[in-house]
């Protein structure tokens, strides 16, 4: 599989000035830099879609979208998988979709516990599961989720995470498919939130002190 193949955003990458890209007026003073513009997110997802279809050898996929943060990545990834499938002369991979809701963050800190909401109704038994997640930070959430999923006896579980935070892993966990490896900074946008704000921002950005204060709970 394609773990080694991701875009690395280095620690000394400054990012792009928010004034040189389009961000909503209501967040203009709350962001430091854009670190991954929306267009680059889309380009990277297209390649992940291609890798996933190639690795599936025509077997059906059950995508499990991790709400809420994973909804944009899931939607764009499945759209692009559908395109790859349409262009495939043979070996296309049929896709089913399940949703799981998990909550583990308060302010910018992991609460240390993971709550899986409505996991029991998941139809994953004997399926080739593709977990679709926005970000892997400590790896604890994913480990817990994988334990739960495994207990439902899937045929196979693969994980696609748009982001992987460098240096914060407590578990050494690495996803099968990763969009970008990023510095250890709190990021928002493209459905990633800070206390439910910033999901309505298309670029992935680093939040500033003003934003942290303004939207803290
Ligand atoms: N941003 C948003 N949600 C998160 C992050 C982050 O940096 N890390 C873990 N969940
Ligand atoms: Mg969140």
TrEMBL record:
GO process terms (BP): GMP salvage; guanine salvage; hypoxanthine metabolic process; IMP salvage; purine ribonucleoside salvage
UniProt pathway annotation: Purine metabolism; IMP biosynthesis via salvage pathway; IMP from hypoxanthine: step 1/1
Keywords: Cytoplasm, Glycosyltransferase, Magnesium, Metal-binding, Nucleotide-binding, Purine salvage, Transferase
MF terms in GO: hypoxanthine phosphoribosyltransferase activity; magnesium ion binding; nucleotide binding
Keyword Transferase applies: yes
Coiled-coil region: none
InterPro entries xrefs: HGPRT (IPR050408), Hxn_phspho_trans (IPR005904), PRTase-like (IPR029057), PRTase_dom (IPR000836)
Keyword Magnesium listed: yes
Gene3D superfamilies named among the record's database cross-references: 3.40.50.2020
Segments forming domain Phosphoribosyltransferase: 42-194
Reaction(s) catalysed (UniProt annotation): IMP + diphosphate = hypoxanthine + 5-phospho-alpha-D-ribose 1-diphosphate
Compartment(s) where it occurs, according to its Swiss-Prot or TrEMBL record: Cytoplasm
Family indicated by similarity: Belongs to the purine/pyrimidine phosphoribosyltransferase family.
Cofactor(s) the protein needs: Mg(2+)
EC number: 2.4.2.8
Primary subcellular site in the record, as a coarse category: cytoplasm
GO cellular component, one term: cytosol
Annotated protein name in UniProt: Hypoxanthine phosphoribosyltransferase
